[in-house]
Design goal:
The chain has 291 residues and is an alpha/beta fold. It has 2 domains: 8-84, Orthogonal Bundle (434 Repressor (Amino-terminal Domain)), CATH 1.10.260; 93-288, Endonuclease, Chain A. It has helices spanning 8-26, 31-38, 42-49, 57-66, 71-84, 101-112, 131-141, 147-166, 180-184, 190-203, 256-272, 276-288, and strands spanning 115-120, 173-179, 209-214, 228-232, 241-246, 249-253. It is elongated and about 70 Å long.
Length: 291
């Protein structure tokens, strides 16, 4: 039930989803009823089902009995339950002092995802950024941090690129839509801007990267939409999850209704965008007009 790219977080999410299905769809229990049998708070059951809390061995045994899980399925769930308790430090663990809880949660999902759909309005997707570009946007976005902390976050972004796209046998399938404004904004000065556009031309030919640009002529279809990304997983037991961006920070969305709306929105943005070849042409034009 687990795959080679599963993380501790994803094991917990998968396990929690299986428990929720057993409770609500198979046995038709309410959370309060389960909590009463286990002698715990409703919030504990909810957090276990959403992957935010580890299920103890005692609670696992009681849940299997309560849900009358047959032996073969119980063995599978026991294997997955064991995976939720393994202490396998992820690659980003050395940066725990500068990574927020929300960012760590995102990294866990991204590490286990197989596909990403991302839309950006004013900046370029993190997995496509050069180090200098990342340094510039991180320095502005985290003004309360010191230089060493900003450098650490830039290193994390570079490691994300290596683990998810550049140095892996199973790269993340990346579908990106960005506005033409994101190409025009001069981030980090002229030289950094030029290097970033050149890098975009190169990385956009990667087999796992589909990059499309919404031109200014289609601005009404893109300008009023905030940045977001949707992560999808090869494991059918793991639902899609989305992250929206705003001045208040990142918002995690896993409600099926929100996800359906975001998928429709991304399809509309893709339809408004230029083709990958036309998008590379506009990147080249943007780069050459500054020379």
């Amino acid at each position: 039930m687990t795959s080679s790219n599963s993380t501790l977080l994803m094991s917990r999410v998968t396990f929690g989803r299986a428990l929720r299905r057993l409770r609500s769809q198979v046995n038709h229990f309410k959370i309060a009823e389960v909590a009463s049998v286990l002698g715990c708070d409703v919030s504990l059951i909810s957090r276990i089902e959403t992957g935010k809390r580890v299920c103890s061995q005692e609670h696992f045994a009681k849940l299997m009995d309560l849900y009358e899980v047959p032996a073969p399925q119980r063995d599978e769930l026991a294997e997955l339950h064991a995976a939720t308790r393994e202490q396998r430090p992820p690659w980003w663990s050395p940066y725990s002092e500068v990574i927020s809880a929300q960012y760590e949660r995102f990294l866990g999902f991204e590490a286990a995802a197989s596909i990403v759909h991302e839309y950006q309005v004013g900046i370029l997707p993190g997995l496509l950024q050069t180090e200098a570009y990342a340094q510039a946007v991180t320095g502005v976005g985290f003004t309360s941090l010191g230089p060493d902390q900003i450098d650490a976050l830039v290193e994390v972004r570079g490691l994300r690129q290596r683990h998810c796209l550049l140095e892996t046998e199973s790269p993340l399938e990346c579908h990106y839509v960005v506005t033409q404004a994101a190409l025009d904004f001069q981030v980090g000065g002229k030289r950094t801007h030029q290097e970033q556009l050149e890098y975009l031309l190169n990385i956009s030919t990667h087999d796992s990267v589909d990059l499309r640009v919404v031109p200014y002529g289609k601005g009404e279809e893109a300008a009023q939409i905030a940045a977001f990304r949707i992560l999808q997983f090869s494991d059918e037991d793991v639902p899609d999850v989305a992250f929206g961006e705003s001045v208040a920070g990142s918002l995690t969305m896993d409600d099926p209704r929100d996800l359906r709306r975001l998928h429709r929105l991304f399809r509309s943005l893709t339809d408004a965008a230029l083709s990958p070849d036309e998008s590379r042409d506009i990147i080249t034009h943007t780069k050459n007009k500054e020379v």
